[in-house]
Amino acid sequence: MFFDLSAEFLARLQFAFTVSFHIIFPAFSIGLASFLAVLNGLWLWKKEAKYLVLFNYWSKIFALAFGMGVVSGIVMSYQFGTNWSVFSDITGPILGPLMAYEVLSAFFLEAGFLGIMLFGRERVGPSLHMFATIMVAFGTLMSATWILSVNSWMQTPQGYLINEVGQFVPDDWWAIVFNPSFPYRLAHMVLAAFLTVAFVVGGVGAWHLLKKQTGPATKTMFSMAMWMAAIVTPVQIFAGDLHGLNTLEYQPVKIMAIEGHYESHPEGAPLILFGLPNAEKKRVDYALEIPKLSSLILKHDLNAPLDGLDTVPDKDEPPVAIVFWSFRIMVAIGFAMLGVGLWSLWARWRGMIYSSKWLHRTALLLGPSGFVAVLAGWITTEVGRQPFTVYGLLRTSDSLAPVEAPAVATSLLAFIVVYFFVFGAGAFYIVRLMSKPPSEEETMLDDGPLRAAGTTPVIQIKPSVLQSNNSEQP
User: Fold this and answer.
1) Mean pLDDT of all residues in 108-118
2) What does the alpha-carbon distance between residue 83 and residue 359 come to, in Å, rounded to a whole number?
3) Distance between CA atoms of 153 and 183, rounded to whole angstroms?
4) Cα end-to-end span (Å), the chain
5) Residue 366 pLDDT more than 50?
6) Can you tell me whether residue 474 is helix, strand or coil?
């Protein structure tokens, strides 16, 4: 089946497959690194055993997710040199340095302090250990900053010149790095990472509460996750709205596809909630819509005109159906997260946050929802940019390396088999770790939670400390 498809389609499919696997690991590690820094700070400040237990519990999971993120990222770099070598050559003078900055600053920062964070608590002392934990968290945020700068430049290119051989070359590095969509996309992605981790942590906490494993560490884990959901979700919805307005200004065709506006609306455009985009007949079949609401959201005026895809040549249209539905999946998950956050506030006020079974079931159900929302958001962003790799300037068809379809199909099949085996096993092991409750009797070792065989325990949590914490509410 694969061998009958074009090389361009297969190369795009391969990159979509690998980036979909890759993005879930950085999204998880960005948020989890910051969570670990908060836990470590609370342990040093309050000296309550539950925070140390949680730090060691989640640092094991972080180490695995970080490692899988690094491995999956290497494969993506490989594709730039094989399937997309023309793109790499044309954009290399701009994107190459930005990617190098990410490695030289963020990745080295993460890798340099990761071992201290995981194994060095008793070797370097609490202050340096805390500093290492903060540096790992800062490194993950720096990595997101550089990668989002690269991708945002491809969406809203600025600060470039085109040389005599057709390459993009830098003219203003400030304009390149801080391109028009970069601040909005960075904020949206970092907040998405925080919410992804919040709902994973909340889902794990809810699972153990439903299993009646109600130790102080489990309660604290669930409580902190619900605070994050209640506080950050409204901020994310607001940031998403600002991002949408920025996209309307710089990538209007993407907004037309997201909204399903095949036709222009000179006197106010409807918000199409659901429907079936029909590319052949240039309409949305069975549309459920609210009159003029799209104009109100996008231009804050019920009667504001909005252009449709009838103003765009067919060859410049993105695949509307994919963008239309991926955006709605992302938004639906966002509002579901908001609902859980508000529900948790009500349960907290009623003193039922640790006893509300339906809240726990819902939080468990939404545990993986952050990953789905991140994937849906990236699909909206990347597919909505088509048919360009550099928006409006470099077409995807002109970015492809001179490769044959059978070669791309073979490597794609190999990736599918290897990814599902390797990353499937890693994900299975992470889930197994999550299925076990954070143990209040866990012995903490001087080289952290991933102790090599044969080392000697240095720190133990005394039962008296744990008993004094059992009566406390997190």
Assistant:
1) 84
2) 47
3) 11
4) 55
5) yes
6) coil
- Burial tier of 467 (Cβ tally within 10 Å: 0-12, 13-18, 19+): exposed
Residue 394, CB half-sphere, CA atoms under 13 Å: how many?
21
Phi, psi of 88 (to 5 degrees): -60, -40
Band the pLDDT of 440: cuts 50, 70, 90: low
Separation CA 97–CA 104 (nearest Å): 10
Largest CA distance in the chain: 75
**What is the per-residue DSSP string for 230-284?**
HHHHHHHHHHHHHHHHHHHHH-HHHHHHHHT--S-BTT---EEEEEEEETTTTEE
Distance CA 64, CA 44 (A): 25
Closest C-alpha among 383, 435, 467 to residue 57:
435
Tokens standing for residue 442: 């866990």
| pLDDT greater than 90 at residue 344 | yes
- Report which residue type is found at 177: V
Would you kindly state where each structural domain of the chain is located, as residue ranges? 2-470
Spatial contact of 293 and 270, defined as CB atoms under 8 Å apart: yes
Nearest to 96 by CA among 76, 80, 75, 112: 80
Distance of alpha carbon 126 from alpha carbon 40, whole angstroms: 9
